From TrEMBL, chain A:
<keyword id="KW-0472">Membrane</keyword>
<keyword id="KW-0410">Iron transport</keyword>
<keyword id="KW-0547">Nucleotide-binding</keyword>
<protein>
    <submittedName>
        <fullName>ABC transporter ATP-binding protein</fullName>
    </submittedName>
</protein>
<dbReference type="InterPro" id="IPR017871">
    <property type="entry name" value="ABC_transporter-like_CS"/>
</dbReference>
<dbReference type="InterPro" id="IPR003593">
    <property type="entry name" value="AAA+_ATPase"/>
</dbReference>
<feature type="domain" description="ABC transporter">
    <location>
        <begin position="3"/>
        <end position="239"/>
    </location>
</feature>
<dbReference type="InterPro" id="IPR003439">
    <property type="entry name" value="ABC_transporter-like_ATP-bd"/>
</dbReference>
<keyword id="KW-0408">Iron</keyword>
TrEMBL record, chain B:
<feature type="transmembrane region" description="Helical">
    <location>
        <begin position="324"/>
        <end position="341"/>
    </location>
</feature>
<comment type="similarity">
    <text>Belongs to the binding-protein-dependent transport system permease family. FecCD subfamily.</text>
</comment>
<feature type="transmembrane region" description="Helical">
    <location>
        <begin position="12"/>
        <end position="33"/>
    </location>
</feature>
<protein>
    <submittedName>
        <fullName>Iron ABC transporter permease</fullName>
    </submittedName>
</protein>
<keyword id="KW-0812">Transmembrane</keyword>
<dbReference type="InterPro" id="IPR000522">
    <property type="entry name" value="ABC_transptr_permease_BtuC"/>
</dbReference>
<keyword id="KW-0813">Transport</keyword>
<keyword id="KW-1003">Cell membrane</keyword>
<feature type="transmembrane region" description="Helical">
    <location>
        <begin position="67"/>
        <end position="84"/>
    </location>
</feature>
Length: 265, 344
């Protein structure tokens, strides 16, 4: 399943939130979107998900413009998890995950065996098999986020768009979710695009990284090339070094804390 | 929150038959109790096709049509409230709060001014009101008000709270227009309208029930078709759309249905306030996490609340009965305040 867009532009009023954004993804690829706050990562993801109509350009799945698909058709190909989604308090984990099957069952058809199996699989993949009867309000932040990811998985889409899936989670849950993303990509061939703030996590998990600054795509390439480009220090206005920790791993960005430099100076 | 829900709690499926049984019970209670004393034996005789002419007239011509009209209207208001609360994701949404009832009120008022007054300027009796048109005319006004809510919701992309506030404003304006029209109309005829305006089941005949019934049947027939979109409309628009819902289309269908149900009932019995607000909360409270039960419970509870409120109004006021709209308003306010305190 190929996801691509070319010269995508989105404007909010007079502000250009995204300008001439290009992206092309191979099947099973993991792509990280990085950039400062307000650089257009969320806008890019929402436009790719068909939730924002671009002023220019278009998004295509397998060379088919997503504008020509119905919502349900699109949802069968592509699952999108927004930042901090909210659900009715009394909803249970299982009920939430079941909504992911809407793309397949539609308004009228009953849930079949394959739907129940997909729900079961989604719950198990996110380690929520024992939680299915809990209401969402009883869950911790990490559990709730996994429930949402589970709902997106139940959609069984070949493209997964995640907007900061690891924010507000402790490091244990962060790694758990990144592991899950990695497994989905390598074992199921799911194509993943996600925005993420932790640079080192982005470097270690993704095949390609797109760096955004004020709505402009200023880098698109492999993690190692990003390390060599020197753009990170400039875009995020920090000082730091890329350090090669293990021979075959992507380099690790070691940021200098301004306070420490001030003290030693 | 310190309360923990029992994970293994079975579905309270018995609630549903119990509630419908209770609805039947309140119906018979309303049938047996009234200002005019009719012996229970006489009532049973009437129901089995016998009984005196007087008892027959009281039961078959006055009480039964009134109760049935009330039940239909109660179902309309309750379901309309549930639908509005669901799509606006606002627990305080209600057709009488969001301007839908006021739209229906205005259109019925305009209609009555033109038909009753122009056809027969001397008339001042309730009998002159063209009953058969009221649900349809009310619906027209309610749909216009619904259209305004829709435009506010999508053109300006407002959040649930601001949509509700705009609905309140729209409702206030429409209500003021209706009152102004009635005041300008003058003469003794406004008494007839004022009774209707407070939401009343007084002197509701078979005609009222019969002309409202098609709207009830049509509305309830659509409900099973929108059950899944109702589930998804509980989410924010981006989430619902990501799951594959054509959000705008489904939102419009449900809004249309809600306005149609509420405003046709306003046409028949006047704006009975707070039923649409309180009943869905009761239904959700009973259903707990079993969302599938909320809709049928809302239907049954809507019938119960209106039947019992009307009974209270009839008995408390004796000969000068209290309009049901007044009863629901008085009972509804404490419940509304309780919900407001619970809402964060």
């Amino acid at each position: 399943m190929l996801l691509s867009c070319s010269s995508l532009s989105v404007t909010y009023g007079r502000r250009k939130a995204l300008n001439a954004f290009d992206l092309s993804l191979r099947k099973g690829e993991i792509r990280a979107l990085v950039g400062p706050n307000g650089s257009g990562k969320s806008t890019a993801l929402q436009t790719l998900a068909g939730l924002i109509k671009p002023a220019e350009g278009m998004v295509e799945i397998d060379c088919r413009p997503i504008g020509s698909m119905s919502r349900r058709q699109l949802a069968r190909h592509l699952a999108f998890l927004p930042q901090q989604p909210s659900a009715p308090d009394e909803m249970t984990v299982e009920q939430l995950v079941r909504q992911g099957r809407f793309a397949h069952v539609g308004l009228f058809r009953n849930y079949g065996i394959e739907d129940e199996e997909a729900i079961r699989w989604a719950l198990e993949s996110t380690g929520l098999a024992g939680f299915d009867n809990r209401s969402l309000s009883e869950l911790s932040g990490g559990e709730r986020q996994r429930a949402w990811i589970s709902a997106a998985l139940a959609q069984e889409a070949q493209i997964l768009l995640l907007d900061e899936p690891t924010s507000f989670l402790d490091i244990g849950y962060q790694i758990e979710i990144l592991d899950l993303v990695y497994r989905l990509s390598r074992e199921k061939g799911v194509t993943v695009v996600m925005s993420i703030h932790d640079l080192n996590q982005a470097m270690s998990i993704s095949d390609h990284i797109s760096l955004l600054e004020r709505g402009e795509l200023i880098f698109d390439g492999e993690p190692k090339q990003l390390a060599d480009s020197g753009l990170i220090e400039k875009v995020f206005r920090v000082k730091g070094n890329f350090v090669q920790i293990a021979p075959n791993a992507p380099p690790h960005f070691d940021v200098e804390l301004a306070r420490r430099t001030a003290l030693t100076a | 929150m310190t309360t923990t829900l029992d994970v293994r709690k079975p579905a309270p499926l018995w609630f549903l038959p119990a509630t419908f049984l209770f609805a039947l019970l309140s119906l018979s209670l309303a049938l047996f109790l009234g200002v005019a004393d009719v012996a229970p034996s006489d009532i049973i005789a009437v129901l089995t096709g016998h009984g005196s002419a007087e008892a027959r007239s009281i039961i078959m011509e006055i009480r039964l049509p009134r109760i049935l009209t009330g039940i239909l209207a109660g179902v309309h208001f309750a379901v309309a409230g549930l639908l509005l609360q669901t799509i606006t994701r606002n627990p305080l949404a209600d057709p009488s709060i969001m301007g839908v009832s006021q739209g229906a009120t205005l259109s019925v008022t305009i209609f009555l001014v033109f038909t009753v007054y122009i056809e027969d300027p001397g008339s001042n009796t309730l009998a002159a009101i063209p009953v058969e048109w009221l649900p349809a005319v009310g619906m027209l006004g309610g749909l216009v008000a619904g259209g305004i809510i829709y435009l506010l919701a999508f053109r300006r992309d407002l959040g649930p709270l601001r949509i509700t506030l705009c609905g309140i404003a729209v409702g206030a304006v429409l209500h003021a227009l209706a009152i102004g029209l009635i005041a300008g109309w003058g003469s003794a005829r406004i008494e007839v309208l004022l009774e209707w305006l407070s939401g009343s089941l007084y002197a509701r005949s078979w005609e009222h029930a019969v002309f409202l019934l098609p709207f009830t049947i049509a509305g309830l027939a659509v409900l099973p078709l929108i059950r899944r979109s109702l589930e998804l409309l509980r989410f924010e628009a981006p989430v619902a759309r990501s799951f594959g819902l054509s959000y705008r289309r489904q939102f419009s269908i449900v809004l249309l249905l809600s306005c149609g149900l509420a405003s046709s009932a306003v046409g028949a019995v006047g704006p009975v306030v707070f039923v649409g607000l309180v009943v869905p909360h009761l239904a959700r409270f009973l259903a707990g996490r079993h969302f599938a039960l909320v809709l049928p419970l809302t239907v049954a509870l809507g019938a119960i609340v209106v039947t019992l409120s009307d009974l209270v109004g009839r008995l408390a006021g004796q000969a000068d009965e209290i309009p049901i709209g007044v009863v629901t308003a008085i009972c509804g306010v404490p419940v509304l305040v309780a919900f407001l305190r619970k809402t964060p």
